[in-house]
Amino acid sequence: MIKFIRVLMTIIFATALSHAAGAESVYDVANIKVNATGKDGITAKSKALAMAEAKGVVILFDRLLTPGQKAKALARLDPDTRSLLVKAFSVKNEQSGGTQYIAEITIKFRQTAVQQFLANIGAKYSDSQSEISLLVPILTTADGKTVIWSTDNPWSKALQNHDLQNGLMPLKIVDSRNAGLLATEQEVLDKNENALYQLASAAGENAQIVFAHMTLDSQSAIVRVSGITSFNRSYPLQGADLNAIYEKAASDFLRTLVSEWRNNNITSKPQLAEFKALVVFNSLDQWITLRTRLSQIDAISEFDTDAMTAEGAFINVKYKGNVAALAQQLQMNGLSLIDLGPYFEIRG
Hints:
Blueprint: H1 2-20, E1 28-37, H2 41-64, H3 67-76, H4 79-84, E2 86-97, E3 100-109, H5 111-120, E4 133-140, E5 146-147, H6 154-160, E6 171-172, H7 176-182, H8 185-189, H9 193-200, E7 209-216, E8 220-226, E9 231-236, H10 242-265, E10 273-280, H11 284-295, E11 300-308, E12 312-319, H12 323-332, E13 336-339, E14 344-347
Parallel strand pairs: 4-6, 4-7, 10-14
Antiparallel strand pairs: 1-3, 2-3, 4-5, 7-8, 8-9, 10-12, 11-12, 13-14
Helix pairs in contact: 2-3, 6-10
């Protein structure tokens, strides 16, 4: 019976993940906690959104850039330009009353705008994302008790406070309500191969598992990570807030994980920027003519047709330099480039 349930849960997870595939993006930053006050609720919310925007771009740059490149990018980023990088906000756990506003905010950044900004300052970066892996947070307390999901696991909660799914190395922690149906805690600790395979299915087909084991004793908290990476660090406990230790250890481990991937995949030169554009035409002959003229624009590295509509054709354009320079080249060739927000429009 247990085996049947595990097989069923594996199928359910695989089906759910097939629908969710591709939903994560390194240009999305989630779980930004804000708490702001103002003379009224509207002012408080406005401050909170600005706060989230400032925090979000720091997290994004920390993800894409080395520390030196991050410092360079932040020094060159003014508030107005920063706002132009933001595509959309979404809010959860919203609390608003009187002069205070509390929420958790997700920011979707404009990929093309961010790439263009980084290209303009000559920054080297990586936005290449690995396959998702399963993260198993194991906590052994000072009295020798080991827990993964059967009871409260503050180490797991500290890791889940971070935006795990949108990083360069996306991670998934199995929901405690379902994990036990895929593998028991003892099977995980014993590294039972079949049970681990079932558990990994919660992240995706052929997903790898990362074991993050924190062990507490009277003097220190020791974190040992194995799987796709190794990380070993000790944190003194004397006079320290244990929750702060959990959070610092989680931040240190995740930062190291992302740094390893980023440094191995960083571009030797800024990547080409890309945007979607609707090329407007009235006839097939005009479409052929416009395609030929676009192929002669030096700033355009390549473009491909994405979809045909009643108005024209949507194309994906990869280009060098900045949008203003590209627009000028297009204009010199009798074409206009119009920014409509979600996409550009090209007319000839």
